[in-house]
Specification:
globular; Rossmann fold; single chain; 5-stranded parallel sheet; mainly alpha
């Protein structure tokens, strides 16, 4: 008979294991601790933070010194788009261009220690990587480009991931993490400093190359990003909102089941998605409305999926990015490697379709595929 897993054993791969002690204490105090059965996971996270603290402090000091002596961080290229809109596929393709640096897995797992302790432990960390992402069938390799949001959740209390870890205050954590709603100017400034510090570390590890960053959260923060880097470039990939809805519901439910350290049965995930999608996407439309053509480009996921090479070439031309012809063989090699990939497919009920088309009518009209209509 197969034995049940011991519910008192800690999770072996919870993202909070890379958190610093101050951030961990802050989110625990704000969110009221963890469920009793997750105390072992919390104990491991706390022990990890304390044991790493000397290495983290030393690395922070060294990075500050190195960045003062080095060139400024080049303005990144940001890939925007709501979750489940094809941002990962686009990111994986464009990251094959050697002109770009990107976020490696070790930087996500140990953002405070990625250059020192993380480099030493990298072989162990790479062996611990899951074969595929929790939310879909995308393979995870040691050189897979990653989002920076989990890393930033390990460096700051302001991240929507803290809503997934601590769902008793799910709505508040999402509003603070996505829009900095209810945050003081000092809290937002601390997040900004840690964000720039983290990307500066990644740039150091990537030889000072321009960073290619993918994070759906930044779809609601283009104005803030442009305050930091006025010359940043943005690529927005959009997808039929009806497909986005059903896949995002799966995204939230999967991550809550995997990562929540508190009960989460009270969360109406469909309502959460219905509420936040229009706010995020309207912020993106408002913040990008006046951008020059060489600073902002859009691509439909459905078109990109059908002809990724042609769409990549168009994006390079639009944004004035150099070197497309030289890098196209790398793009072809990547596409050949994922040719057998099968997407998850989720069915949208008639009631769900009606809710989405009613609540998101302007976005369905703008980005919806006619073939998706009933």
């Amino acid at each position: 008979m197969e034995r049940e897993p011991n519910r008192w054993l800690p999770s072996t791969d919870h993202p909070l294991y890379g958190c610093d002690a101050l951030t961990l204490l802050t989110v625990l105090a704000r969110n009221g601790g963890v469920d009793a059965r997750h105390l072992p996971t919390l104990a491991v996270a706390a022990a990890s933070a304390l044991l790493r603290a000397p290495f983290s402090l030393a690395e922070t000091a060294w990075v500050a010194w190195a960045r003062r002596r080095g060139a400024p961080l080049p303005a990144p290229v940001f890939i925007l788009g709501h979750w489940r809109s094809g941002t990962t596929h686009l990111y994986n393709l464009l990251s094959r261009d050697p002109q770009f640096g990107f976020i490696p897995p070790v930087a996500v797992g140990l953002p405070w220690d990625m250059l020192g302790l993380g480099a030493v432990l990298r072989p162990l960390l790479e062996r611990a990587l899951p074969e595929r992402r929790y939310i879909d069938n995308v393979a995870v390799r040691p050189d897979s480009p990653q989002e920076d949001e989990i890393a930033l959740a390990n460096m700051s209390p302001l991240s929507f991931y803290h809503g997934l870890y601590f769902p008793r205050r799910f709505d508040e954590n999402l509003r603070r993490g996505l829009y900095h709603e209810g945050c003081s100017p000092a809290e937002t400034e601390r997040w900004r400093r840690r964000f720039v510090h983290f990307l500066g570390k990644v740039a150091l590890s990537q030889g000072g190359r321009r960073l290619l960053i993918k994070n759906p959260v930044y779809s609601a923060r283009v104005a803030m990003l442009r305050e930091i880097w006025p010359d940043a470039r943005f690529i927005h990939i959009h997808r039929d909102p009806r497909a986005v809805f059903v896949s995002t519901v799966h995204f939230y439910r999967t991550l809550l089941d995997k990562l929540a350290l508190q009960p989460h049965g009270h969360i109406d995930v469909e309502q959460v998605v219905l509420d936040h999608y229009p706010r995020i996407m309207q912020a993106l439309l408002d913040d990008t409305a006046g951008l020059p053509a060489d600073r902002f480009a859009e691509v439909a996921f459905e078109t990109f999926e059908r002809d990724p090479l042609a769409e990549a070439a168009r994006l390079y031309r639009t944004l004035g990015l150099p070197g497309h012809e030289a890098v196209e063989p790398r793009f072809r090699a990547y596409l050949a490697g994922v040719r057998g990939y099968t997407k998850n497919r989720f069915l949208l009920s008639d009631a769900g379709r009606e809710r989405v088309e009613r609540r998101w009518a302007p976005f369905v009209a703008r980005w919806g595929e006619p073939a998706a209509a009933p």
